Amino acid sequence: MLVGYATSDDAGVYKLNDELAIVQTVDFFTPIVDDPYDFGRIAAANALSDVYAMGGVPVCGLNIVAFPLEELGADVLEAILLGGAHVAQQAGVVILGGHTIKDAEPKYGLAVTGTIHPARIVTNAGARPGDILALTKPLGTGVLATALRRGSIGADAMAQAVSWMSTLNDRAATAMLAAGAHAATDITGFGLLGHANEIARASRVSLAIDAADVPLMDGVADAIARGDVPGGTNDNAAQHRTFASFSRSVPESTRIALSDAQTSGGLLVCLPPEGLAAFEAVLDETHSYHRVIGEVRQGEGIVVR
Ligand code: CO
Ligand code: CO
Q1: Residue 8: is its pLDDT beyond 90?
Q2: Residues 66-113: pLDDT tens digits?
């Protein structure tokens, strides 16, 4: 075993020989959007993301499905699986099969197997003082999903979040490998600060984040101002105060956004400064999103300034 539980990494890694290791991960959840096809795409992109976050290449997957067939019908199930298959195909991943159980609440996701070179694993534990922090998707899916559920935004405003959530982190992974990244993780349920802290702890460093440079999706600041904040995000924010220190200039609404529970978020990457140009070049080639949001320092915890 090369990577297991100890460092809160995104996926496990098991060495087969000196040249080859397998990366394994599983993720599934309840629908966060009404459209079954979109739900399938999002769940698949989210499950694949943990392989990309390690620097691996996903190869094959298994569908994991819980579904109330009598209530919702076969067409809905088919649309979910089609969405998942579409994103898997985009990633070059073969769906080998899967398993379905009856359940009152639908759930969908994938168990994914990928490959990686045993010497090129990008874990949470490798960040070094002086590294640059980059993020590859803006934040706000939790807040926007809550705003949609409460009817304070329409499906149009949610469409950008759906598009981000169904975007693969494949390009971001290629870019970080080209840049010789020291550490990376994907941003999901614990929010930016929660996942940043996993890197800080595993690497025994401090992460300094420039709040004004952290990108938010359109409408997120307004939604937070209206109070459209999911319970999970509020819980995150309360917990994050135990290890994050904030400059006075950072408004409360920004603090909430930095703790927002994400679905299928981007990669948070720790890059050696000399790798930044290569990282940006790979992403710019396909007009893929990226922002520098801070740096790694000596010390511990998270500093938001
Ligand atoms: Co992850
Ligand atoms: Co995961």
Answers
A1: no
A2: 999 999 999 999 999 999 999 999 999 999 999 999 999 999 999 999
Dist. CA 118–CA 132, nearest whole Å: 24
Q: 50 C-alpha to center of ligand 2: Å?
A: 6
Mean pLDDT across 26-42? 96
State the DSSP code for 260.
Answer: P
CA of 299 to the centre of ligand 2 (A): 27
> Count of CB atoms within 10 A of residue 101's CB?
9
| Structural contact between residues 291 and 194, judged by C-beta atoms closer than 8 angstroms | no
Distance 248 CA to ligand 2 centre (A): 33
Dist. CA 188 → ligand 2 center (Å): 7
Span from the CA of 121 to the centroid of ligand 1 (angstroms):
14
As a whole number of Å, the CA-based R_g of the chain is: 19
For residue 75, the CA-to-ligand 1 centroid distance in Å is 30
93 in Cβ contact with 61 (< 8 Å): yes
Q: What pTM did the predictor assign?
A: 0.96
108 contacts 65 by C-beta, under 8 angstroms: yes
- Ligand 1 centroid, distance to 153 Cα (angstroms): 28
Distance CA 193, CA 251 (A): 15
